[in-house]
Amino acid sequence: MSAPSLPAVPPHVAIIMDGNGRWAQQRGLPRIEGHRRGVEAVRTITFAARDLGVKMLTLYAFSIENWRRPQDEVGALMGLLEFYLKKELATFVRDRVRFRTIGRTGDLPAGVQKHLRTTVEETKHFTGYTLVLALNYGARTEVVDAARSYAAAVVAGQEKLNDGSWDSFRRHLYTADMPDPDLVIRTSGETRISNFLLLQAAYAEFVFTPVLWPDFSKADLAAAIASFAGRERRFGLTSEQLKPAAR
Ligand code: IPE
Ligand code: IPE
Ligand code: MG
């Protein structure tokens, strides 16, 4: 049973969307076709998550390491991203979805950056539901960027080196104004984290599913949430401490 004070629906769900290439390969299609179908799954899951009561959805869309893929695949992914942003803006505005990103977006192609800026700007006043795309994201890079930002803040007198704490350090992460993920899902049967939200997922629950990302449905998301609801998150405490009333 989950602790009574914790919500049954995870407020923040983060997903490592994996398996587009294998989805295509299984059908004798080019990998990019898997990515195209992956974008369809992004659309479905963005609204499915909200329907199920999730407040924030973070999707790992492109890692720092993904630049090392063949150039034509990287180019096609960037093209798809630009196309997606162009097409989705109207939907986000209509359905009141706040859009934001985490990662070194400054290194993405200029066209992508332009659409990112517009989408973030035009949806920034929505408060009910947020979609976060992790783009050119890597957790180790994030720590390096945060350490640099923290050091600069110390030099500027805004942070004090001697009373450094997690609460002050986390203000320098890309996720400074975001809650930590409660549930992290990875599709495609891989059981690794691949440099995703390493620090923020310190106390997240994990669900690994064999479903390939293009096939991931609202029912699969609901199943992951049901699994989450059945767990006890102890945060270092004992089970008894979490349920004193029951004893
Ligand atoms: C996930 O699918 C999408 C990205 C990493 C951009 P993959 O492209 O990694 O699919 P597999 O793992 O090769 O099947
Ligand atoms: C993780 O998937 C990155 C994204 C989902 C964007 P990868 O397919 O790149 O991960 P590895 O290489 O299998 O660990
Ligand atoms: Mg993969």
Structure description:
With 247 residues, the chain is of the alpha/beta class. It has one domain (12-242): Decaprenyl diphosphate synthase-like (Undecaprenyl pyrophosphate synthetase, 3-Layer(aba) Sandwich). It is built from eight helices and six strands. It has helices at residues 20-26, 31-51, 71-95, 110-123, 139-155, 166-169, 218-229, 239-242; strands at residues 12-16, 56-63, 98-102, 130-137, 183-186, 205-208. It has a six-stranded parallel sheet, with helices on both faces. Helix 2 (31-51) runs parallel beside helix 3 and helix 3 packs parallel to helix 4 (110-123). Bound molecules: 3-methylbut-3-enyl trihydrogen diphosphate (2 copies) and magnesium ion (MG).
Q: What does this entry show, briefly?
A:
The chain is of the alpha/beta class and 247 residues long. The chain has a single domain, classed as Decaprenyl diphosphate synthase-like (Undecaprenyl pyrophosphate synthetase), CATH 3.40.1180. The chain is built from eight helices and six strands; from the N terminus they run βααβαβαβααββαα.
